[in-house]
Amino acid sequence: MASRNFYIHIILRVTFITLTALGLAFLFTKGFYVVCFFMLGFLYFQAWQLVYYINNINRKLAYFFDAIKNEDFTLHFPEKDLIESFQSLNQSLNRVNALIQDVHLKKQEQEQYYQEILKHSNIGILTFNEKGHIIFSNPTVEKLLNYKPLNHIKQLAQVDKGLYALFEDLKPFDQKLYQLTNEREKTQLAIKSTSININKQELLLVVIQDINKELDEKETDSWVKLIRVLTHEIMNTITPITSISESILRYFKKDDEMVNADTFEVKHIENTIKGLEVIKEQGNDLMSFVQSYRTLLSVPEPDKEIVEAKKLLSKVLVLMQQDGVNNKVEIKLDITPENLELFVDSKQITQVMINLAKNALQSLKNKENGIIKMSAGINNANKKYITVTDNGSGIAPELIEEIFVPFFTTKNSGTGIGLSLSKQIMQLHGGSLMVHSVPDKNTTFVLTF
After folding, report:
1. Which tens digits make up the pLDDT trace of 207-239?
2. Which has the closest alpha carbon to 388: 340, 437, 336?
3. What residue ranges in 1-57 does DSSP mark as E strands?
4. Which GO terms describe its cellular component (predicted)?
């Protein structure tokens, strides 16, 4: 309605100006110069009124938008204006102002609601811009870092210089673990980051969590599993030694007295020799077991170098073929991009890949059309990875958590340290080794660097 009245007023005013101009031109040609002078003044007055009318509306709109920009909703236009079009315009502006004010209030309520959630969260959350200025930090961050108020990441240098260096180099999608040490305690922090864009400003959102409790529970659980496996393996080795030793001892001692050598039978001597041989074998097995444990504890630091992924996987393929791969098993290589390079210890990663490939071959032992696929590439988090996938028997869900425990094995032979050693090698590379398995369908081991 306001726009309609506005158009009508503009059309009428332009029409009057046009008619006045035509009348002025007509009178000027007839020689009525005095009348023309007054007509010229009237034409000027009409033009001025038109400009004033439009500027008045423009000023109102400018005031209105400035008030909205400054979040000032107290501006109110009089609705009893002398001009009907202004009255309609003022009513429309006041209605829009009220609607925007209502939306603004709801937005503030929602923002306050989210602020309260973030304040009471037991996970630390902060955001900072590319210059290091901290835009937001909740109380949990200040409590974890024992520092407030936080305005710039440079302040973290006063908490821990290593933590400041970590934040300074932090990139989107990074995941870091950092042990923060102060005079009171040690805190293990899990730090994750992601990129967000607010008001055309690129910010880094960082989530910080104290994982001491989770690590303690995980460590206790790992020790329980390890002790269970160690106890099982040692008991399996020692039990036959104890039993055979008791049997042999009965040949040489009765009623706590030594047996006379003249009473020995050939059969007793033969059994003693066989028993001693078994004890020797069990002793050697136990020594091998202990040696495996020492191997697990003495993995050297990786000697990293730039290695072509294609060359590395091709080498693993050749080594598998030398070990005699079943002709029924098809091995595929997939490297994207083809010139992908890895910064790794070639010998250690080859050892890991050989171990995973042998496990895959064993799972395909009695399967027709077995396939092993070794892939390398870059994931969505810009991390380089290698995967080993087979379509074999898979791993039962209840064993997924057990397979990386040292000395745990489901095979009849082997020490059970292959996967735990592989995982340790990946951790020394600053990466991880994960597994996903669907029994009787596929199993995938993922090495992420």
Report:
1. 888 876 665 666 556 666 666 666 766 777 777
2. 437
3. none
4. membrane
Residues of the chain with pLDDT under 50: 1-2
Rounded to whole angstroms, the Cα distance separating 222 from 216 reads 10
- Are the C-beta atoms of 354 and 316 separated by less than 8 Å? yes
- Give residue limits of the domains in the chain: 2-109, 122-210, 215-297, 305-448
Report how far apart, in Å, the C-alpha atoms of 65 and of each of 58, 60, 79, 102 are.
10, 9, 18, 16
What whole-number distance in Å separates Cα of residue 431 and Cα of residue 409? 24
Which residue's structure tokens are 């050693």? 421
Rounded CA separation 114/108 (Å): 10
The token duo for 249 is 């001892």
The domain at 305-448 falls in which architecture?
2-Layer Sandwich (3.30)
User: CA 244, CA 276: separation in Å to the nearest integer?
Assistant: 8
Give residue-wise pLDDT tens across range 401-444.
Answer: 777 766 556 655 555 567 878 888 888 888 888 888 888 888 89
Q: CB neighbours of 273 closer than 8 A, spacing ≥ 6?
A: none
Contacts of residue 168, defined as CB under 8 A and 6 or more positions apart, other chains included, come to: 132, 153
Structure tokens at 292: 């495996």
Across 213-316, the runs of DSSP E, i.e. the strands, are 253-254, 257-258, 305-308
Joined together, the tokens standing for residue 261 give: 């050598």
Quick one: CA dihedral 171, 172, 176, 182, positive or negative? Answer: positive
Q: What φ, ψ does residue 201 adopt, rounded to 5°?
A: -115, 125
Secondary structure element (H or E) that encloses residue 176, with its range: strand 175-181
CATH for 122-210 is 3.30.450.20
CB atoms within 10 A of CB 407: 21
Distance CA 124, CA 142 (A): 8
